[in-house]
Design brief:
The protein has about 230 residues and is of the alpha+beta class. The protein contains six helices and nine strands, in the order E-E-H-E-E-H-H-E-E-H-E-E-H-H-E.
Amino acid sequence: MSVRVSTVPEISRPGVGVVKVSTWHVGTPERQRAAVEAIGEAWGRRDWPDGGLLSYSVMVGEDGRTLLHYSQWRDEAAYQDFARTGRDERNTEIDAAVPGIERLGLGSYELYRSGAAEGDTRVPGCVVIVDVEFDGPDPARQREWTDTVFAALDSDPYERSAGIAAHFHASTDGTRVLNYAEWENAEGHIVALNAPGDGVGSGSELWERVRTFPGLAGSTVNRYTPAISLAAG
């Protein structure tokens, strides 16, 4: 089966049972570009894995050092089968082209809730990853915190004209929420964060509840540029 190449994944694609998210540390912008090229070549010269992999996407970190990997799978068994039979040969080829890649861990998620304007066909030029950690496993808390964010967004007076969609993923171990937010560009996200008084995450009562939610242990925000998204052709 051939490989279809685009720039961004279809986050709400049907049939996704588990999402895998990981980060590679490659060190420099030049190595970021070389690694993306090596990924495209390693995957492009091989048949698409049978059945279980629905998409595999890579984004380039604004920090000039990292790559974010986002893959959609039919279920956990499909991922484990690929890990046993197809992952190492691809990674070996990539590592030969860009030696010294540091792989910083792999998280498993399920898409819980998405927010997007109906009929919006804009292609994201920036992906903002908000990674939220709680002090222990609690699936109900993951959902309640996410629902609180949506309530805050709905009441937010700031018009996020550059925002396209927000996709909230709950980790399967119950300890994290990952928001995969799509924006037209990084500048639009920066403007939204810095809008005086009423920007995203402003001082409203609901946003304060988001920030001080019981059990919230910490969060990070990182911006990425979509680089390559692969799916069965």
